[in-house]
Amino acid sequence: MTQFIKDILVDEIEDNVRVDVFVANVLPDFSRNRIKTWIKQGKLRVNGISSDPDLRLHPGDIITINASLEHSSSNIKAQEISLNIVAKDDDFIVINKPVGLVVHPGAGNPDGTLQNALLALDKHLINLPRSGIVHRIDKNTSGLMVIARNIKSYQYFIEQISNRHVTRVYNAIVTGVPISGGQIDKAIGRHARDRTKMQVRQDGKEAITNFIVLNKYKFHSLLELRLETGRTHQIRVHLNSLGYPIMGDRVYGGKPKFPKGVSEKLRLMIETFNRQALHAKKLAFKHPRKDEIVSFEIDLPQDMKNLIELITDEDNYIA
Question: Which residues are catalytic?
Fold first, then answer.
């Protein structure tokens, strides 16, 4: 068991919000059900007093959490799986996750995941919740992730991500050509009918994505995106809501779309590009123990480079 201890001050913006909703937004890595359990067990108090999940908060209220976190790694086996380690020290590991690697074991993926690999890489991670994983990226998204190596850095990164102090920058290749960049501020929640998907919905959790257009091609674009929040499938849902689905994203973008007069070569590439063209290219944060910002950046993977090469080539557009 590991103790999770945190104090949260309610500001004026959050007046009259339910305590369980507020904490779920501040600490998105913990489910609302877990937060409700903490409240009912007296492990989450408001102004030092036990409360109910539907208690309404007011500016100046202080929420205190003192809860035990079970070591979810204890029943997960270590597996020797090659990882691309970008950097590591006593407090964290930064990896470049490849396409196809699932982050956590779950239905359909009982092993062979990043968590299995981390337990083989560092046996001490068994003592941390989620083996030190403090955020995740989708199975078919590539790119940078940070993993905590001790409980202090684990709590540190959870707090930094919750407070939006971790810089996360992505590249995406999308269908369509936006006129310019901007901010997407649309709440996201579980899909009303398909519970494996997310959707933009008024009663969802706050979700903010900033983006700029790096390159415009004939029918596609290369975007750079910065996350302010970290909701499940956030970038994919947000871009699709604007009418610019990520290439290869069959879940949110549907069947591949082919520009008029496209060459057979490009048609085949679009048709067989079987993952969302989304890559976590940059990660930056203040070091857990040093007064310095550390930053990591990696290039696009080869499959996205190949795709850009084809959509850039005018010879691939016959008409």
Answer: 138
